[in-house]
Amino acid sequence: MNQNSLLRIRDLSKDELMGILKDAQLFGVSKKDWQLPQKKLIANLFFEPSTRTHFSFASAEHQLGCMVENFSAQGSSVEKGESLYDTVKTFESIGYEAVVIRHPKDEYFTELNDISIPILNAGDGAGNHPTQCLLDLLTIYQEFGTFKDIRMAIIGDISHSRVASSNKEAMEMLGGTCVFSGPKEWQREGYPYMDIDEAIETADVVMMLRIQHERHASMMQMSKEEYLQKFGLTIERAAKMKPHAIIMHPAPVNRNVEIDTSLVEAPNSRIFKQMSNGVLVRKAVVKRAFGAQF
Fold first, then answer.
1. What is the pLDDT of residues 35-49, one digit of tens each?
2. What does the radius of gyration of the chain's CA atoms come to, in whole angstroms?
3. CA dihedral sign, ordered 103, 105, 110, 115
4. 157 burial class (0-12, 13-18, 19+ CB within 10 angstroms)?
5. So what's the pLDDT on residue 211?
6. pLDDT at residue 220, as a whole number
7. What is the mean pLDDT of residues 76-90?
8. In angstroms, what CA-CA distances link 280 with 138, 147, 193, 204, 289?
9. 3-state secondary structure labels for all residues of the chain
10. Beta pairing partners, 208
11. pLDDT tens by residue, 165-176
């Protein structure tokens, strides 16, 4: 496996993680127009639907001067039974210099140890989402200037959430804390749970998660309105947040399900800021993948 691959947050040292965030910040200020010294050929292989992750990677790649190909499993040899390894090996063999992959299988990349080009994980199953985590971290750092003693409450479908997994790893590494809340059916072993109202009232960052309809056949035994009242960020709950606390969400947002629609663009919401930061972070990890220096 290429040493410049990005597969899991826990594969990074604290210094490496902070280095990526530093580069992302520079892309937002003094290095806005910086490009890779040489054009690179990169393929985005998405085996699951995606808007923000897919197209912020594509935006980052184009802004860095890459030549970009967006792969779809539909209409490819995957439909003929081709393995993930053979698909990726094909891209490597025909001259692609890096691949970005989102796949429904947990840690799909364990099948790709013999691939020599960098692999950037755009999400695997319910396991890891390192670039989403990094953009969340950048958003938090911009707000507070530190991670030490920052308390993040992650609320919703924890059992299926790669966002919850990656953010827990990162916050613990950086001196922060994660607590979790949501329906008991979606709890996850090793993730400390508390009542939703306590979680929201004591957090510096309130991260609401989407109900992942596609990952379980029966969503829940309640209406959307009931879910919002029991497990969502309502106007009443938001009013009890700490004065400095911010609202986050990895999106897409189910408005009026996990969050009242009026809160999505509230003054303390950073949901669309997260999306902007996604491009900066993905520029930083593509730069890292190719070993480039400013």
1. 999 999 999 999 998
2. 19
3. negative
4. buried
5. 82
6. 59
7. 92
8. 9, 19, 32, 23, 14
9. CCCCCECCHHHCCHHHHHHHHHHHHHHHCCCCCCCCCCCCEEEEEECCCCCHHHHHHHHHHHHCCCEEEEEECCCCHHHHCCCHHHHHHHHHHCCCCEEEEEECCCCHHHHHCCCCCCEEEEEECCCECHHHHHHHHHHHHHHHCCCCCCEEEEECCHHHCHHHHHHHHHHHHHCCEEEEECCHHHCCCCCCECCHHHHHHHCCEEEECCCCHHHCCCCCCCCHHHHHHHHCECHHHHCCCCCCCEEECCCCCCECCCECHHHCCCCCECHHHHHHHHHHHHHHHHHHHCCCCC
10. 155
11. 999 999 999 999
CA–CA gap between residue 112 and residue 262 (Å, rounded): 44
Identify the pLDDT of residue 214: 52
- pLDDT higher than threshold 70 for residue 293: yes
Assign 218 a pLDDT band (cuts: 50, 70, 90).
Answer: low
